[in-house]
Specification:
This protein is of the alpha+beta class. The chain has three domains: 290 residues, 2-Layer Sandwich (BirA Bifunctional Protein, domain 2); 108 residues, Herpes Virus-1, CATH 3.30.40; 118 residues, 3-Layer(aba) Sandwich (Rossmann fold). It has 19 helices and 23 strands. The strands form seven sheets. It has a seven-stranded mixed beta sheet. Strands 20-19-21-22-23 form a five-stranded mixed beta sheet, with helices on both faces. A hairpin with a 5-residue loop joins strand 17 and strand 18. Helix 1 packs antiparallel against helix 2, helix 3 crosses helix 14 and helix 6 runs antiparallel to helix 8. The structure holds adenosine-5'-triphosphate (ATP). The site of adenosine-5'-triphosphate (ATP) has 16 residues, from strand 10, strand 13, strand 16 and helix 14.
């Protein structure tokens, strides 16, 4: 890979960090350009030079995105008989956002660098500083592993090594100050922390900062033709509230018994201070959320359950266990009594992919208060009414798309010295499962290939390709992640057999047309992923 060779050239230890960052930037750039070249993701309204941080999913991207949605929906709704799905409107009564706390508290602390004129999220600047200290610890541990080999006791090393302990203490102090300042809305405290840590602007390198200010992330617009505050409504910043306001409708009409969940996939909008890193942080994005309603007092049990369960869902995809980690929140949102992120090793490093939040009874209680309607549950076993507690799982569909795409993307050098770009997507998520190809455009092979296509396309999403040499066609399918290519050749005309080529191993096998559907199904059907 391009980045790998770049790293090899960097021998000096101090250069290593810079090289690693450069390598990650290069990989992200390669993924972005591959995504555009093959019709996965385009800059939005590109003919007008695009709109910042807004993207459109192309013909292959929309297929991949739909498959990710299906994997989530089936795992959450279809195989849980106590979880149902809804599709609520993006526009909601404006009081919803007063009740949820978004009007008053859905803010990010922003800070500007006076020299570069760049705007940052103050908490993100501090978290990035913490991450650098964390990397120093990991480097120290890596040195230990190298020095002591098999005798290395990592836990003991972390508990006793003076450098590790000093840095761990630093992190603890910074996190403590950040938590206190953010928790008390003490923006001056956040500013002082940035100054004390001598954090510099990554662009200008200067420490010439403005004060820290709060910025509300909700987009607003006006309903109908009336202007002014009375008609002001918001584009939903999360899909969760659509679930909360429908809690009673669903519970009563679905005769749901606690514990039960309501799931939803849909668009959300946030006027992010800094929207960047491709589809990682956008102002219009899609969420897949599930609110699980439980008995008060049982929320921590379910919180642990969903943390574990969601991690398993991710790991079944086979993107590599080491690419995931939990991050417990230091600063809890106003509604939560516990929260953790599942972080993924994106090309830019470990970042939040999914949040699991124990939201208490905050949302339902607030909606009770603001609407004047009771949002309670009569528990027949306890013979009492209560407002249920809620455990939420919330994953960004676009971030999941980036996780899958960036991990699947590889640029390989083959034994014969040629290269190929391949998307090793989990077969169940691949946009096309099969490509059907006649070896040549004559001797009745295209007609036979169309027959085979017809036999397959009611079970799988397929492509037909007869243009260019077989080698070129295989490369094209590798680049879009098609797990299997079926070649119809002259032997097919004699004995009704075809070759099936595996994207990852590039090996070919001869099988009969009669067994094709069953063999492919075994390899690409999502049900096997869900059942495992
Ligand atoms: P972050 O800290 O990265 O801003 P968050 O903690 O505000 O994220 P949540 O409110 O927990 O995010 O939203 C749930 C999920 O929605 C996130 O885990 C993420 O995958 C996704 N998400 C949030 N904001 C964006 C965005 N601007 N663009 C794309 N996905 C997003």
């Amino acid at each position: 890979m391009v980045g790998f060779f770049y790293a090899l050239e960097c021998t000096h230890a101090n250069l290593f960090y810079l090289c690693a960052m450069q390598q990650k930037d290069d990989i992200l750039k390669e993924v972005i350009s591959h995504a555009k070249e093959y019709g996965f993701v385009f800059p939005s309204s590109e003919i007008y030079d695009g709109l910042s941080a807004t993207y459109d999913y192309g013909q292959l991207g929309s297929l991949l995105k739909n498959n990710i949605k299906e994997y989530w929906w089936k795992a959450m709704v279809q195989v849980h008989d106590n979880i149902v799905g809804i599709d609520a409107a993006i526009f909601m009564h404006p009081t919803t956002w007063k009740a949820s706390g978004h009007v008053d508290a859905f803010n990010d602390p922003l800070i500007d660098n006076k020299d570069s004129k760049k705007r940052y999220r103050a908490d993100v600047l501090i978290e990035e500083h913490i991450e650098k200290i964390r990397q120093k610890i990991e480097k120290e541990v890596a040195k230990g592993i190298k020095r002591f080999g098999d005798d290395f006791d990592e836990a003991q090393f972390r508990a006793t090594n003076p450098n590790v302990l000093r840095n761990a203490k630093k992190i603890e102090e910074i996190e403590g100050r950040m938590k206190e300042s953010l928790g008390n809305d003490d923006l001056e405290g956040v500013y002082n922390l940035i100054v004390d840590l001598e954090i510099a602007c990554p662009i200008s390198g200067s420490k010439n900062w403005t004060e820290v200010r709060q910025f509300n992330l909700m987009f607003s617009t006006e309903l109908g033709s009336v202007a002014g505050d009375a008609a002001k409504i918001y584009l939903r910043p999360e899909t969760a509230q659509g679930i909360f306001v429908n809690y009673l409708n669903v519970q009563k009409t679905g005769r749901m018994k606690i514990p039960f969940g309501i799931a939803q996939i849909g668009k959300a909008f946030r006027n992010e201070i800094v929207a960047r890193q491709f589809i990682f942080r956008m102002r219009e994005f899609e969420q897949m959320e599930m609110q699980f309603f439980v008995r008060p007092g049982e929320e921590m049990k379910w919180y642990d359950y969903w943390k574990e369960h969601r991690m398993q869902w991710h790991q079944k995809l086979g993107l590599g266990e080491a690419n995931y980690r939990f991050h417990d929140h230091i600063k809890l949102a106003h509604y939560a009594n516990a929260a953790a992120d599942i972080e993924f090793n994106f090309p830019m490093g470990f970042k939040e992919l999914e949040g699991i939040h124990s939201r208490t009874d905050f949302d339902l209680k607030q909606h009770e208060e603001y609407s004047g309607k009771k949002l309670q549950y009569f528990d027949p076993e306890l013979n009492e009414n209560y407002v249920p507690y809620v455990v939420e799982t919330s994953i960004g569909l676009d971030r999941m798309f980036l996780a899958v795409l960036s991990t699947a993307y590889t640029h390989e050098t083959l034994e014969d010295g040629s290269t190929r770009s391949v998307l090793s997507l989990p077969p169940a998520l691949a946009p096309y499962k099969v490509a059907v190809m006649p070896l040549t455009k004559k001797d009745g092979l295209p007609e036979k290939a169309k027959e085979v296509l017809n036999k397959l396309q009611y079970d799988f999403s397929c492509q037909y390709d007869e243009k260019d040499s077989p080698g070129k066609r295989y490369r094209r399918q590798d680049a879009i992640g098609t797990p299997y290519c079926i070649m119809i050749d002259h032997q097919t005309m004699e004995d009704n057999t075809v070759t099936i080529r595996d994207r990852d191993t590039m090996e070919q096998e001869r099988i009969t047309i009669a067994e094709l559907n069953a063999i492919i199904d075994q390899k690409v059907n999502m049900k096997y992923l869900l059942m495992d």
